[in-house]
């Protein structure tokens, strides 16, 4: 009886060993940790773009308050949107809240409007489109400087060229950088022929300086400054008079008919 119990116990132990061996074979094999593999995986991540951004932020915030203020104004002019300090910081990396000098410059700038929360670009003339632009120019019969219109809205230069096709006059001042926009209005008035003859019969001075003096005498500002232009031309060595072409001297050739043969010394250079 004891022998049978021992055999049964041995069989159970054998079965248990077989089951343990089978379970160990079915368990997945775990790869040991390799530091080299971890390093190669980490090197796949690139931080160059982030480093460049941080360097740019540091450069901007270390610049002068005037430079940072200009950067913000350029952003406001380009976007034409009302932006908070956080939005400005995210767009151009200027921390308006942290830099009191920049904040004071922006809030007191004539080109910026601050309502207590947002900053927005403030042009000299609040215009939105070509219709409003034309209406403004028509209110200035004596002309308005184009420089005062160019910051009204982004496409103002394109609209000025379009209006110049028949709605306005764009006249350039050759003695300064100013261009003037005038309203165009033909008035539809018929002028008598005698009036035209009288107008055309008026003799104008031939020198522009005399014309400018006449305009100044009558309270008008000339669009040109001939005296200044001539002085600059003299400093630069440019003559006001048209340069006369020098005539090329012709030498005596064999085909020249000799006269005054009693003066042979005049023809020493003539080869026989």
From TrEMBL:
Predominant place of localization: nucleus
Localization of this protein: Nucleus
Swiss-Prot/TrEMBL keywords: DNA-binding, Nucleus, Transcription, Transcription regulation
A GO BP annotation: transcription initiation at RNA polymerase II promoter
GO MF annotation terms: DNA binding; TFIIH-class transcription factor complex binding
Stretches assigned to the TFIIE beta domain: 53-128
Pfam (any one): TFA2_Winged_2
Residue ranges of the region described as Disordered: 223-258
Domain of life: Eukaryota
Alphabetized InterPro entries for the sequence: TFA2_Winged_2, TFIIE-bsu, TFIIE_bsu_DNA-bd
Biased composition, class Basic residues, residue ranges: 244-257
GO cellular component: transcription factor TFIIE complex
Function: Recruits TFIIH to the initiation complex and stimulates the RNA polymerase II C-terminal domain kinase and DNA-dependent ATPase activities of TFIIH. Both TFIIH and TFIIE are required for promoter clearance by RNA polymerase.
Alphabetical list of PANTHER family matching this protein: TRANSCRIPTION INITIATION FACTOR IIE SUBUNIT BETA (PTHR12716:SF8), TRANSCRIPTION INITIATION FACTOR IIE, BETA SUBUNIT (PTHR12716)
Family stated for the protein in its record: Belongs to the TFIIE beta subunit family.
Subunit structure of this chain's protein: Tetramer of two alpha and two beta chains.
Listed name of the protein: Transcription initiation factor IIE subunit beta
